[in-house]
Amino acid sequence: MRLHVADHPLITHKLTVLRDKRTTSPVFRQLTEELVTLLAYEATRNVRVSEITIHTPVTETTGVKISEPRPIVVPILRAGLGMLDGMVKLLPTAEVGFLGMVRNEETLEPTTYAERLPADLSDRQCFVLDPMLATGGSLGMAIEFLFDRGAQDVTAICLLGAPEGVAAIEKQVDGRDVTLVLGAMDERLNERGYIVPGLGDAGDRLYGTV
Ligand code: URA
């Protein structure tokens, strides 16, 4: 597994505002979008491209375009949805699939309640969006889901990660092609499975408590 933790003052600045409990939902949504676009730049470093020939007004030259089959972006509902706009801004030709997952707040175990993905993901590069890598339960389940359908490689973009979650994913992927891109690596999980210092419940911060 490859792990990339962002190290850029602009990302740290935006994350600091995001963490602040006084930040309102509209600002939280805007910052999430901006952060994902910045993280997507790193996450797409290995996106597959094919060489093409084009004509500039001056001459013929070669360039590249994103290969077929197109990459697929998979936000994990609900909170991952807040990351989608920031991702497709940078990768507008990607297809989008959805995975709905919820974690039981007592056992912290995830269950899948919705799925809208192609049946065959053979050869597809998949980009999973999940803002909080806490225990790794839902992200791990999503990664298995994608590999079971034939995905070639999976890159997960998370705003924050806990060491416990990163270790869980690393153990689970066991040599398969998985990249984790984090905005920051936080200290730990608390007894309720929240990331510390974290930002609270990402879904609630994005959309209000429901
Ligand atoms: N999910 C969240 O939204 N926040 C956390 O801190 C952990 C999981």
Automatic annotation (TrEMBL):
Gene3D superfamilies xref list: 3.40.50.2020
EC number: 2.4.2.9
Binding-site residues for uracil, renumbered to this chain: I195, G200, D201, A202
Domain called Phosphoribosyltransferase: residue spans: 5-209
Activity regulation info: Allosterically activated by GTP.
Binding site for 5-phospho-alpha-D-ribose 1-diphosphate: R78, R103, D130, P131, M132, L133, A134, T135, G136, G137, S138, D201
Pathway listed: Pyrimidine metabolism; UMP biosynthesis via salvage pathway; UMP from uracil: step 1/1
GO BP of this protein: UMP salvage; uracil salvage
Top-level EC class as recorded in UniProt: transferase
Reactions accelerated catalytically: UMP + diphosphate = 5-phospho-alpha-D-ribose 1-diphosphate + uracil
Recorded coiled-coil stretches: none
Cofactor: Mg(2+)
CDD domains referenced in this protein's UniProt entry, alphabetically: PRTases_typeI
Keywords attached to this entry: Allosteric enzyme, Glycosyltransferase, GTP-binding, Magnesium, Nucleotide-binding, Transferase
Cofactor: how and how many bound: Binds 1 Mg(2+) ion per subunit. The magnesium is bound as Mg-PRPP.
Signal peptide region: none
GO CC annotations on file: cytoplasm
UniProt superkingdom: Bacteria
Listed GO MF terms: GTP binding; magnesium ion binding; uracil phosphoribosyltransferase activity
Protein function: Catalyzes the conversion of uracil and 5-phospho-alpha-D-ribose 1-diphosphate (PRPP) to UMP and diphosphate.
Homology family: Belongs to the UPRTase family.
Protein name: Uracil phosphoribosyltransferase
Species per Swiss-Prot/TrEMBL record: Microbacterium schleiferi
